Amino acid sequence: MAISKEAYRVLEAIVGEDYISSDPVVCEGYRSGPAGYEAGLGYERVMTKVPGCVIMPLTTEEVQKIVKVCNRYKIPYVPYSTGWYGPRSHCHVEDELLIDLKRMDDFEIDEKHLYALVGSGVIYSQLQEEAMRRGCYIIVGGGGSQCSAIANMLGDGWSPLSYRIGLPHRRILGTELVLPDGELVKLGSLAVGDDPFWGDGFGPDLRGLLRGFTGLRGCLGIVTRMAIKLLPFQPEKLEPTGISPNTTLQLPPKRVKWINFTMPSKEAMKKAMFEMARAEIGAGATKVPIFWRAIAKARCKEEYWDIWSKENEETISSFHLLRVLLVGFGSEEQLEYEERVLNDIITELGGEARRTRPTDESWFKNADSAGMWLMCGGYVSVDYVIETLEHAIPHGENYAKLKRKFTPPLMPDYGDPGWFQSFELGHQGYSEFLVYWDPDVNTDGVDHFYLETSKENIRKRFYTSLLGPHQPLYLTGPAYGPNYHKWLLKIKDEFDPSFLSHPPVPLAHDHFVERAEWMRPMKDWESPKFAP
Amino acid sequence: MTVKTELSKIVKPENFFDDPEVLNSYSRDFSLVPPGVPNYIVKPKTVEEVQKVIQLANKNLLPVVPVSSSVHFHGAAIPKQGGIIVDLTRMNRILEIDEFNRRVRLEVGVTWEHATKALVKKGFRLMMPLAPHPMRSVVIDHLEREVITNTVYDYGEPLQSMEVVWPTGEIFRTGSASVAGYPDSPSKGANPSGPGLDFYRFLQGAQGTMGIVTWANLKIEYLPAMDRVLLAPVDDLGYTIDFLHRILKVRIGQECLLLNNTDMAALVAQKWPDDFENLRASLPPWSLILILSSMARHPEEKLKYEQNMLDEIIRNGFSEVRLVDNLPGFPSIGKKLLVLLRQPWPKDKPYWKHRYQGGCQSIFFITRPAMAPQFIELMEAVAAQYGYPVDDIGSYIQPIEHNRACQMQFDIFYDPTSEFDIEMVRSLYHDAISILASEGALFTRPYGELADLVYESATGYATALRRVKKVFDPNNIMNPGTLCF
Amino acid sequence: MLKGKLSLDVTNLDNFEYDMSKCIKCKGCYWVDHIYMPGVTFSTRCPSATRYMFDSYGAYGKMRIGLAMLEGRMEYSDELLKTLYACPLCGACDVGCKRNLDLEIELTLEALRIKAVKDGKGPMPAHKKVAKKIDEKHNRFGSPHENRKKWLTKDIKVAAKADVLYFVGCSAAYTSPEIARATAKILNAAGTSFMLMPDEWCCGNILYSVGMIDEAKKLAKRNVEAVRKTGAKTLLVSCAEGYRMWKVDYPKMLGISTSELGFEVVHLTEMAAELIKKGALKFAKPLDMRLTYHDSCSLSRLSEPWTPWNGERGEWGMVSPGLERRRGTNGVYQAPRDILEAIPGLELVEMIRMRENAFCCGAGRGTQEAFPDFAAWAAEQRLFEAKEVGAEGIVATCPMCKDNFARVARQNGEDLKIYDISELILAAL
Predict the structure, then answer these.
(1) Which residues contact C33 (CB under 8 A, 6 or more apart)?
(2) Are the C-beta atoms of residues A223 and A217 closer than 8 Å to each other?
(3) Is the pLDDT of residue B52 over 70?
(4) CB–CB of C201/C222 below 8 Å?
(5) Dmax of chain A from CA atoms?
(6) Phi-psi region of B299 (alpha: psi -120 to 50; beta: other; left: phi over 0)
């Protein structure tokens, strides 16, 4: 049923005629694919739709009213900050209302109490610049500076700088959440007043509804405002330099330094991360996948392939590059001390420092993430897991082995076992496995690989970020918890019994497997029958 | 079969109690929360036993109150509607010490004393609140969000994944412990988040209303190789708080806290009551305790640069701060404070909060540090109204997260054998929390009557909480009458 | 054309199917380069998307809409035409995208307009009026063609023949004669002999920009021939839009490279910077002003020379032969700044969005004509930015920019001074 005239009129009255449209041209502009994160794949082709209507609210109150109207008129809706996360943040059913939150870009910052209060329309590079200007910093998630800060804090929120800063969960402070029925629940200190500086709940913490590790893609409500914790940085400016495409931040050499080290083995790299954590030095510690270095060097796609095609299994397996970030948070002396300790560790382990540019374009203000698509035009991370280093390394190796069966259509990476790094001063380890493919060839193999990784994680007892909305819920559900899916669906039923908020998430991947005939043979788990 | 019989069968008769004396021993604690008597007490040893107890409770619609320590201060473990006390103190194994990942997995009954001893042997320590009672559950204290004295680790939050028995009776693991077969898995349980929902958040601060946690993974840290304990007398609290904003932002210090003379005296006095009274009189109004530490590699150099940073900050803006490594008339204060802050309270001494008058009602809340002087004034005004000597109030300010926030704690000491004292403190407490809350104090751990106060202003939050609670505990058996449930 | 033969020929939208289908919605085309992100204000560089806000108005939306047009899934409508045309084709999107990827956004947008015209649906009515004026009077204002040289004053020396041909352009000839006069006098002062076109016609900027490629190409052929006939070695312009037309779009339409034009295309700022370095231009009079410089799009990010290309796209989307893409790196950014910094007494303060991040004035390439409110709005944004950095005035290098800023400043009662750089150079000599 298309959005009725009555409903449209009511919605228009909420935001004003300039901020709502059901024009087919406007709506086409919100199509998910055919390119983007995870786009061009079966999920995107089968599961996403162009919205029936787009609305752009300005305030939390408007969002509430819109959601209540949707409940009244049974209009399915999806919240949308930038659309960057790919098909999973786009409409999945016909005649759906897409609630574009870009106008909600309010911003306040309190550097003394280390938080910024933002609306959904504020992106990371904006927040990072405002923070750095005041001697603070944030983590810009791997998705890049173009991510909505709120959206990324809800589903991701980590980078090599998580080595010191840690999980994003504690950095979500006072938050406004519009529930799927339009009721507003304020979390943290906002529950009792206007001050958003504190995140803990009163008694049990309802921030538990927000993430579930990598987010619920808006199927349990819309976050419209969030206070995000900042961390103290060092006082010198990271100067932007260069002209596109070669723009970068010049690092103040006595306060902020990246150093690349070649290590003799993966074990040595792991040990280096361990020793760094033990010595409590560093602000970032990550392995560097070779293909990223090729992207950084290449001036175009063809040059990338020229560089990449010179690699092979042997060069990959013998290349171990550890990239370490040192920050003299308190003084130059601190950085000197940490560098001394670091050099001791690296020397002990047989590593060697390489010439490293005193610049950054990838992490402080991550301007590079779009480069992931340079190679082939298609990219997705089939997993990104925070666990321990002891989990991260075999996890990546396992994926590399599995991936061989699906290469092609996946881009050959000569067995590269993914990206791993140390988090929370060694308490955690992170592994991410990125895959690339040419979207203009048959990509069924990529869809299969995506699902196969889920099964492999279950078989091998790995933790995974791709739970909830990301993989078939009835596949992962019984395997984790166990039966986390029952609780998720019960909570969903409590707050959104009509499945109006981003339907059919969190069952979207279940639906996909049912609908896509090339996926059906992979289904070897039980699930109820899904309505079309 | 009667409930009694079934319970005895589940935990074995020697672990079942319904003797009135025993029941009464669970009916009150060190708080002012009115007594409440349970009907039964069980002491399970395994999660399966816990599960069966909960299943039985659901069948009979009996309340269940989980108790993990043998000492309680806030009334959360006092049954409000009778029911079954599930005393988990027998579940007290240290399940794993994972040195590589700096993680420890503790059953919920493991005490601070037990855990600290075991970890020290391996060169590790737990993040700790101020002088916790040695018989308190480590897991529960972290679950209840006790604020720790260590300010330096940016990632915070020691709690990782857990095992819980839901109020519906399912055994469940949160975070990365949720993988099948854990701990026989590559996953070590180091990630608290997920799967699907952040279940661990529902269990935090829940006072046993959302399920029974049976074990948890916690982060542990290395014991420093070197420490330098510094103290500073504080006359001007506002000035010192500004100083802390400055130094904690550059991550100076491991432990950092402010204690007023009364609390400081209660913590460090050796001989009672003389030492206590002398210290109270001679200590400055407040003392800043700051511990600089370094790890194994080039420890002196680390201390040196940190001291240099500290000195420069003092030189360039805080010349009135006088950090010293001693306390006149109190030899080895440094060593003593190090023990105080890195070990639980010794078992063989009366708990520090009870040393002065035998009883203590603590009022603690989160606030912005700049508000501290104002809250102190308010607290003193309320105390004065009740004739409570202002000098008797113990005060503690714990900076949190680079001093962007702090926990304020007022310790109201009283004689628990005096009916008069009890009633006076009860009224004082009631008025104090009301006034403090109205001025912005955040009581994020609403024990006892705080719950009514808090949820009256957080009605939206309470409504949402009840909806979540309904999902996990449809029969409302878990510690009913607590929080907003 | 996703795989197989293709070229950078904008007359066939099929050549850009790959580009449209590979837009990842990163909005690098919308945001200021994240490295330079100044915070929560002045964060964007796409005027259309900033103004109209729906995704359809950003390149990320237009690529999807374009693909729908190519695949026959999109019907023409007023909204579609507005989406295609309420856009100054400023190139911010192209440069932003090409920081990380190899997609031809600008060319796609041009090709979409050409398709709209070919399909009989575009351009906008206001553009058709301008096209008629150009056809009849050889200028975009419809003013008498014979008045084209009226800007010339007696004190300006024009050579009958010289290596340098000054192409004045419609704006400087008719509505901003101070620019033409200043340019001519600067050349005179430097002792650089210059000639004019015997019969100067409109460069066709608006025609090309709105997709009327047949008409634009006719003009291009005619104009290039006319210049070649004069034997000029250098074609000098003082208009950024004209600069881009001659240097980039003429070769593009004629299927040749910039170097094959037979003459060098130079903007006044490039020439003047050189003359100052050589000492042929000397500043004597201080100008005590705090001014900011506006990077006109067509002089900056859109101005790299053109080389035609055709080849094939194959595995992983790679093209062969290799293609050196125009990413805006080598636009004329520095020369105007060198000039302004050389003027004594003049304090140059940069706007927050500068160089390839500059926010378009909103007037160029047909936008002013069809969407005057939008052009005014864009100018307002830039004027506000100039005031934010404490500038007393803005310096532009294009009469369209100057005209738009001046009009809006006047309408809003702003006391910001608006200059073309030629005026300042002359005043300081």
Answers:
(1) A244, A247, A367, C96, C99, C356, C357
(2) no
(3) yes
(4) yes
(5) 73
(6) alpha
| Nearest-angstrom CA–CA distance, C28 and C94 | 9
What is the pLDDT averaged over residues C120-126? 98
Distance CA A306, CA A292 (A): 14
User: How would you write the pLDDT of chain A (532 residues) with one tens digit per residue?
Assistant: 579 999 999 999 999 999 999 999 999 999 998 999 998 899 999 999 999 999 999 999 999 999 999 999 999 999 999 999 999 999 999 999 999 999 999 999 999 999 999 999 999 999 999 999 999 999 999 999 999 999 999 999 999 999 999 999 999 999 999 999 999 999 999 999 999 999 999 999 999 999 888 889 999 999 999 999 999 999 999 999 999 999 999 999 999 999 999 999 999 999 999 999 999 999 999 998 888 888 888 999 999 999 998 999 899 888 999 999 999 999 999 999 999 999 999 999 999 999 999 999 999 999 999 999 999 999 999 999 999 999 999 999 999 999 999 999 998 888 888 889 999 999 999 999 999 999 999 999 999 999 999 999 999 999 999 898 899 999 999 999 999 999 999 999 999 999 999 999 999 999 999 999 999 999 999 999 876 5
What is the residue whose two structure tokens read 């005895």? B8
Q: Do chains B and C touch (3 or more CB pairs under 8 A)?
A: no
CB contact under 8 A, B468 and A204: yes
CB atoms C318 and A370 under 8 Å: no
- Complex prediction ipTM: 0.97
Pick from B91, B97, B86, B167: which is nearest to B126 by CA? B97
Distance from CA of A59 to the nearest CA of C (A): 16
Q: Are strands C289-293 and C393-396 parallel, antiparallel or unpaired?
A: parallel
H or E stretch covering A319? none
Within 13 Å of residue A418, how many CA atoms lie on the same side as its CB?
Answer: 29
CB nearest to A146's CB, from C31, C80, C325: C31
- Closest-CA residue to C49 (of C114, C111, C93): C93
Within 47-76 of C, beta carbons closer than 8 Å to A belong to: 53-58, 60-62, 64-65, 67-68, 73-75
Chains touching B (at least 3 CB pairs under 8 A) are A
Length of chain B: 485
Tell whether B172 is within 8 A of chain A (Cβ): yes
Predicted pLDDT of residue A532 = 57
Rounded distance, CA A27 to CA B332, Å? 73
**Looking at residue A251, what DSSP letter applies?**
P
Q: How far apart are CA A444 and CA A94, in angstroms?
A: 24
- Mark whether A and B touch (3+ CB pairs within 8 Å): yes
List of chains touching C (3+ CB pairs within 8 A): A
Give the whole-angstrom CA distance, residue A419 versus residue A285: 11
Q: Is B201 on the interface with A (CB under 8 A)?
A: yes
pLDDT for the residue A454: 96
- Among C23, C316, C327, whose Cβ lies nearest the Cβ of A244? C327
CA A500, CA C288: separation in Å to the nearest integer? Answer: 63
Q: Which residues in chain C are closer than 8 Å to A34, comparing Cβ atoms? A: 21-22, 67
CB atoms C56 and A25 under 8 Å = yes
All residues at 6 or more sequence positions from A407 whose CB lies less than 8 Å from its CB, including other chains: A413
Question: In A218-351, which ranges are E strands?
Answer: 222-229, 231-232, 239-241, 248-250, 256-262, 284-287, 321-327
Which H or E run contains B412?
strand B405-414
Upstream peptide bond of B389 is cis (omega within 30 degrees of 0): no
Report pLDDT digits (tens) over A385-422: 999 999 999 999 999 999 999 999 998 888 888 889 99
**Chain CA centroid to CA B115, Å:** 15
Query: Which residue bears the tokens 């001989």?
Result: B271
Asked if the C-beta of A232 comes within 8 angstroms of chain C's C-beta atoms, the answer is: no
